[in-house]
Amino acid sequence: MAAAEAPEVLQQCGCKGIRTCLICEGQRCGDPPWQLSPQKTHHFLYCSDSGWAVGAEDSDFEGWAFPFPGVTLIEDFVTREEEAEMVRLMDRDPWKLSQSGRRKQDYGPRVNFRKQKLKMAGFCGLPSFSREVVRRMGLYPGLEGFQPVEQCNLDYCPERGSAIDPHLDDAWLWGERLVSLNLLSPTVVSMHREAPGSLLLCAAPSAEALGDSVIAPSRSVPCQEVEVAIPVPCRSLLVLAGAARHQWTHAIHRRHIEARRVCATFRELSAEFGPGGAQQDLGRELLQMALSFQGRPV
Prior knowledge:
Helices cover 13% and strands 32% of the residues. By secondary structure, it is of the alpha+beta class. A hairpin with a 4-residue loop joins strand 1 and strand 2 (52-55). The relative contact order is 0.23. One of its GO terms (molecular function) is broad specificity oxidative DNA demethylase activity.
């Protein structure tokens, strides 16, 4: 399908500061900053069946694991036909250059997170093709009452060296659940935790032992040396909440973009903008506009 083909490589990039992509790296001398970032020592793989992070095979922690709460993965959330149509409609509108080799489309208010200010100018709702996606989200456990007020589409391409650095999403405006729909190709979301201290490990649970009491921890590993990989299949929905939302940063490494990938991320309002919150009136106005589904990228 035409929408799934890798787009023509752009001759410009949106990188700023230390962030780079393959386009601007080809114009610079010396090692790009992304090569100098420290690599995590110990790799774990998230298991959606158990909800645990399990030590990678042939590693020092093979057979060991720790609970990794706050992740929900819903596979085959949309069909191949729905996926193709969504990307086709996205590609009708312009994509803006973004950092680290990405392109983006924003459907939401303009926000200055540092000053905690926002403007509604230009925002006229989520796109019409997201109406059914949002309705379907509410049918799944853990997404009851999910009402997104912002949608950000990101376009990743291996020819541009697309990636996104480890980060925590804002918690002043955005609420508890971050929901991302992964389209066109599978990827891996890499989780990191920079807090001091250690993670307590248990023997990796078997399917038969999942209902039993937690085994006493027998080993530990420094938090800052751990990376947890969450495999995200094509057409699946990934939800981050709780510890996975607030305590672990999330990233996508360049090496995990092997073909064009489009991600639609949906964010809900924080309690401050909800009923009874200090800015509930503004929140009500934002939500009413978002769920009109009349939007174009701002």
